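Annotators were shown the component list below and the corresponding predicted structure, then asked to write short factual statements about the assembly.
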Amino acid sequence: MARELLKGNVALAEAAIRAGVEAYFGYPITPQTELLEHMSKRMPELGRAFLQAESEVAAINMVYGAACTGARVMTSSSSPGISLMQEGLSYIAGSEVPVVVVDVMRGGPGLGNIQPSQADYFQVTRSAGHGNYHPIVLGPASVQEAIDLVTLAFDLADKYRHIVSVVADGLIGQMMEPAELPPMQPVRQERPDWALTGAKGRPPNTIASLVLQAEPLENFNKHLQAKMQRIKENEQRQLEMWTEDARLIVVGYGTAGRVAQSAVKRARDEGMKVGMFRPITLWPFPEKRLSPLADQANAFLVVEMNAGQMVDDVRLVVEGRAPVEFYGRMGGVVPVPEEIYDVIRDLYDKLPASGG
Amino acid sequence: MTTAVMTEKLVYKRPQALLDVETHYCPGCTHGIAHRLIAEVLDELGIRERTIGVAPVGCAVFAYEYFNVDGTEAAHGRAPAMATGIKRVLPDRIVFTYQGDGDLAAIGTAEIVHVAVRGENITTIFINNAIYGMTGGQMAPTTLPGQVTTSSPGGRSVSLAGYPVRMSELLANTPGAAYIVRRSLHNVKEINRAKKAIKLAFRAQMEGLGFSMVELLSVCPTGWKMTPPEAMQWLEEHMIPHYPLGDYKVSDEVRALAKRR
Ligand SMILES: Cc1ncc(C[n+]2csc(CCOP(=O)(O)OP(=O)(O)O)c2C)c(N)n1
Ligand code: SF4
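Structure shown to annotators:
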């Protein structure tokens, strides 16, 4: 397949189609609407299910129903719509059906605006609904990565029977970049044995998140926790640059990570020992690689397009071994490399003399 | 005596579509009757093995454990959306929702209106008992004016809480709805009529004719704080005048279908 110029939202949609998504349900919201529009054209063309729901509440419950049949299904939205989906996501987590959700984040709170933002970090990584669970959360920083991570999202959702969220900010959704799409995977023909397909020649299958008695529900929670432990062990992903000898490590994901990377590069070019750590899985947070770096670096700088959310995760991993500073822009403001460079420069100058 | 046994004819047995389990419904509750009617219809139409049921939040929350069909349990009010998701992926399966009045006519109003608007080819069995049974007898959107509930202790005041909603009448106005009728479960004659309606609703779905819903006036002796016979009488005397039984929407195709067989 050749590289072509693709808009992020279209790439996210087409990547899902190539991954064999069988049904898509969504509701228009900027800045992800082109994703839904692409689906509205392509899915019927391919004989697959597309439906514009009456709300995000309905959309996520349509996704839940379709996922119960063992099909690959997906929805997409942006921050306010994701807020509306919380209850449905919790039922999905409690039923252990695989679902992929794309969140093209915008500025909040409330209706906020339609500019790029990362203010959904808490909402998507902490639980995405009531109860004890985390979805798997993937954060792309380019159109190509958006494509690759959507492909991965479907595989992980199936593998763990779990929700996988791909969180892109509005910039990733809206920008055009050269990228390569994977070849088309056919829609899966066979259904998993737990799926609802009609109890033909077998006892009925049931899918529900209801467990009335306390102890059985505690046991189910233990099962979920064990599954998430496996995910933590096996699925942490990150991108590292210049960390091996870094005294200051900049941590950022998605667009913030990408902008920060330019600033880090400039600092490196000028001889500063600065490294870049870009989480790709936001949950599980890539602590296995970040933790040893806390013994090596003198300081961390977390850059986000919010008031400081992922910084909590970094502090949990660093555990006080080094200072963790934060720089963020909010409300849809995208930082530029120069301002991050200035923060890096400032911090770097204050580091204790090297060799100590 | 022995000869009498020899000539015994079995006229009543558990439908195959109902599992041999105890339900948790209160004595005298009509949820059980509604379950049985659905199960008999699934058996008679020979569709048990390709049916998928969606249970609500409400007293019927465990319905998926009572029917001998594949089943799931939706969030409060969202059964029609879930059923849509299932049906769009598996259009040749028979998909039904089973919902109470709080589920369907309050929290899930948008979802039920939009399955009807889309003419979604599913069947809904709507249990209207004029109260929130499961949470202990609060006012429902269908609670009658003046009716005492735990959250309308002085009787439903229409100036405060508005008027009870008539869902069959409302949904009948959507072109996508193929078959919308109201029946009652308060006596044998009405139960038989209810079963016929449920059967036609499922047949309409089998023929792909659009959305079908059977509203069943039901009793909740526990929530109403009545004995079962009192409850049946109250339904007849108070609910039916407010919720007239009848056919609210029968599309031409469904009418033709009803004439066949
Ligand atoms: C989102 C949400 N809100 C509220 C509830 C609590 N709740 C459970 S059942 C119910 C009322 C159900 O009443 P109805 O639909 O009339 O069914 P019935 O119990 O009478 O059969 C409510 C409010 C819930 N489970 N979820
Ligand atoms: S509370 Fe009412 S609706 Fe619920 S099972 Fe008891 S009688 Fe039936």
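Statements collected:
1. The two ends of chain B are 40 Å apart (CA to CA).
2. Strands of chain B lie at 51-55, 70-73, 94-100, 123-128, 177-184, 211-217, 246-250.
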